[in-house]
Amino acid sequence: MIEEENDDLSNEQNEEPQETITRVTGMYKDWFLDYASYVILERAVPAIEDGFKPVQRRIMHSMKDLDDGRYNKVANIVGHTMQYHPHGDASIADAMVQIGQKDLLIDTQGNWGNILTGDRAAASRYIEARISKFGLDVVFNPKITEWQASYDGRRKEPVNLPVMFPLLLAQGGEGIAVGLSTKILPHNFIELIDASIKHLKGKRFTIVPDFPTAGIADFSNYNDGNRGGKVRVRARISQINKNTLAITEIPFATTTSSLIDSILKANDKGKIKIKKIEDNTAAEVEILIHLPSGLSPDKTIDALYAFTSCESSISPLGCVIEDNKPLFIGVSEMLRRSTDNTVQLLKQELEIKLGELEEQWHFASLERIFIENRIYRDIEEEETWEGVISAIDKGLQPHIKHLKRQITEDDITRLTEIRIKRISKFDIDKAQQKIDALEDQIAEVKHHLDNLIEYTIAYFSRLKKEYGEGRERKTEIATFDDVDATKVVIRNTKLYVNREEGFIGTSLRRDEYVGDCSDIDDIIVFTRAGKMMITKVDSKTFVGKDIIHVAVFKKKDKRTIYNMIYKDGAKGPSYIKRFAVTSITRDREYDLTNGNKASKVLYFTANPNGEAEIITINLRQVGSIKKLKWDINFADILIKGRASKGNVVTKYSVKRIELKEKGVSTLKPRKIWFDEVVQRLNVDGRGELIGEFRGEDKLLMINQKGEVKTVTPEVTMHFDKDMIVMEKWVPKKPISAIYYHGGKEIYYVKRFLIENENRTESFISEDENSQLEIVSTDWRPIAEVVFAKERGKDRKENLEVNLEDFISVKGISALGNQLTKDKVNQVNLLDPLPYEAPEEVHADDLEVVDETELSADNSNEDDGGTSDGQTALF
Prior knowledge:
Elements: H1 2-14, H2 25-44, H3 54-66, E1 72-73, H4 74-81, H5 89-101, E2 106-109, E3 128-131, H6 133-138, E4 146-149, E5 156-160, H7 167-171, E6 173-176, E7 181-184, H8 189-200, E8 216-218, E9 231-234, E10 236-241, E11 244-249, H9 256-268, E12 276-279, E13 287-290, H10 297-307, E14 311-314, E15 319-322, E16 325-328, H11 331-372, H12 385-396, H13 409-416, H14 420-424, H15 428-450, H16 452-467, E17 476-477, H17 485-488, E18 493-498, E19 503-505, E20 512-517, E21 522-527, E22 531-536, E23 541-542, E24 547-553, E25 561-567, E26 574-579, E27 590-591, E28 600-607, E29 611-619, E30 629-633, E31 639-640, E32 647-650, E33 654-665, E34 670-675, E35 680-682, E36 688-693, E37 699-703, E38 707-711, E39 723-728, E40 735-741, E41 746-752, E42 761-762, E43 771-776, E44 782-787, E45 799-802, H18 803-806, E46 817-818, E47 824-830
Parallel strand pairs: 8-17, 26-31
Antiparallel strand pairs: 1-3, 2-3, 4-5, 6-7, 8-9, 9-14, 10-11, 11-13, 12-13, 15-16, 18-19, 18-20, 19-23, 21-22, 21-24, 22-27, 25-26, 25-28, 26-32, 29-30, 29-33, 34-35, 34-36, 37-38, 37-39, 38-42, 40-41, 40-43, 41-46, 44-45, 44-47
Helix pairs in contact: 3-4, 4-5, 8-11, 8-16, 11-15
C-alpha cells in the first residue's frame, strides 16, 4: 500500500506543468476595434457636416436649450451638457473654453484665459457664456435638424447641427485618436466667405490659414492642408534701437511663456546672446529683448528664428468624419463640401418656409370663404359633430376651386374653432390684404428656390456684411528665406589644433588657438599629405598628422578659393591647382593630389575672396638645369574642381617656394538685388538691382531719422521700414541734405562724406523736433524751396538751389549753411544737373587665362571638372 502511494507521488512529480494558451484574436478584433472606432468617431475627429466634435456639438445644443438671451454660468452649461455627453465635467469645461477662445460662436464674460500668454481660464463657476448672434444665425434650426436618442435614451440630441458656414475651417480642429490624428488649421472668416462665393460662381479659389496669434507665415508648402504639407510660422520681431528688439506677434501654437523659455534656453546653450528679456504682454504681445552692446540686431533676429520657437513648422493633416468613416481631404474640398451643404440646408429651409406659407394662405382663404359666405350659419340646425363637419364641407364646395389642395377634416375643425368675436369683427379688405401679402411671400420664396445659387451668394454676402467687421486677416503672408544657422550662431567656444599630431577640438587649450566657433559648425582641415577632411566640431578629433590649414567650413561657399602646389609622389613632377570646396560628405577623407604614395603639399593658401598671389619657385641645383628661379601668378590658373589634377609646374625637385606679392581677387563682382516683398538682399535676381559688389565694396543706407551707415552687404541683413536710400557706396561721392533744425527752427543745407565705415551716424541735429526734409546722393543735386504765404504779403516765388554751389563738402558733424530766413512750406528734390562720374578702377579687373607654359621645362598637364569661384578674405 505504501509502495503504491509512493509510485503515485513520483508520477505526479515527474509530470511537466502544462502551459495555458489564451487566444486574444477575438478580443483584439472586437474590443480593441470597438474602442478605436469609439475614440475616432465620438471623441477626437470632427464631422465634415457641421465641423463639430461630439462634445462641441453637445455643448452648443445645451446652450441652445438654456438660451434665454442672458448669460449662463459655464458650470450650469457643463452640468446640462452632461445629460448628453457621457464623460466628466472637466473635459466638457475645457472643450467649452476652447470654443469660447475662438471668439466666434460663444459670447463670453469673465476670465476665459489668454491664448497669447497661455494663462488658463477661471473656474467654470466664475465665468459665464451665451450663444453669439452669429452662432444663433448659422448653427441652429430645429426644423431641419436630424435627431437621435442621447446615450441614456432619456433625451434627443442632434445627429449634426445644420451649420450653414464653413465653421470647421474658421475654427480649425485638432485631435489624436487611435491610429490616426487630425490637424486642421484655422482660416480667415472673410476669406472663407469670399472663397465660398467664388465656388458658387464656378471660379477657382485658394485659401490659406490665418492664425489668432497673428505673426508671419510661409504657406508655399501648405499642400492645401493635406498630409505632407508644411507651414512655417514666425514671430514678428522689430528693432527698436541698436540694443533692443521687440516681439509683437507670436507664432501659432506657441505662447509668450514658451517663447521666452526657448529664448532663455538658446541663450544658456550659447546659441544667442541676450542681456535680459522683459514680458509686457497684456491685451497685445510685447516681449522686449535687450542685447549686449556690440551685438548685431540683424544677426540676432535671424538667430532667434534659427534657434528658438520664434520660428516653427506646423504639419497640417486634413482628417474628418463622413458617414461614420475617417476621410482625408484638403481644405479646398472641405470648403466646397461645406458650401454645397449650405446650399442644401438653405433649400430645405426655403421648402419648409414655402410649405408653411402655403398652409397659412390655404387657411386664410378658407377662413374668408367661411365668414364671407356665412357658412357658419349652416351648422345651427345640426345636432351631431358629423353633421357639423358635413354641413361646412357642403357649404365650402362652391367656393374652393381656386384652392391649391383638397380640404381635410382638420381644416374644417380649425374653422369651427374660430371665435364669434373674431367673426363679428371680420374685415374682408384686411383679410384680402393678408392673403395678397402671403401670395407675395410665396412668390418670393419660389423665386429663391428657382435661383438657389444666387440666394446662397446673397446669404454669404449678408454674413460678411453683418459679422465681418474686425475679422480681417491677422497673419501676414510671406516667403521665408532659409536661415543658415552656421552664419548666425554665436561663436561660443574656441577651436584649437595640434598640427603635428593631427588633432583638432575645443578641449586642446594647451595647443595652438585657431579661432572662435560654435558647437554646430563644421571644420575643414588640410594636411601636408594632400588630404582634406570636414568634420563636426568636437572636444577632440583626430583628422590626420601634419595639418597645414584648419578653419570653419562654410557650406556652398563658392567664393573661398584654395591655391595649392603639390609634389606627385616621391619622384614625380609638381602640380599647381586652384579649387573651391562647396559640398562634401562629412568625415570622409579626400585626396587632393594625384593619389600616388609619398605625395606632399609644397605650397598652400586659403583665400576667401579668391585672391591670386604671385609666388617665386626655387629649384635645387641638379645636373644642368638652366633656369633655377621664376615667378608664377595664380591669376593665370583657372579655378577648377577639387579633383582636378592641376597644371605641371616642374618635373625637377623644388627647393622652396616664396611669396613674392599678395594677390587680389580674380572673381567677377557679385550682383546684388533687393527684394521689397521679403525686405531682403539676394543674389538670385529677385527685386531691384542695387549694383555689382566686390569684396571691399559697401552698401550705403540712409533712413528718415537722418542716420547714415555703410555696411558689407549680406543676404541675412534686415532693413528698417523708414529706409529712404539704399545703394552701392561710392566713397568720394558726397551726400547732400536739407534738414529742419528743431531747436533753432531754421532749415540747413549740408554736404558731407562718410567718415566712419560700419557705424551708424546721425547727420542732423539731435533735437527731438528736428527732421530730415530731403537727402540726395547725386553728384550735382538741385532742390526747390516752396515758401509759405505770410499774412499781408504775396507768396514768394519758388527758389531753385544748386546744392553743389550753395555749400562745400564738410564733415558729417557740421551744422551746415542756413537755407533761407523766410518761412518755408516744403522742400522738393528736382532732377540733378548732368555729371559724368569718374570710372571705378579696381585691381581685380583681370582677365583669367589658362597658362599652358608655366615652367622652364615647358610641361603642362591637367584634368578634372571646373568650378565657379566667389570669394571673401582669409
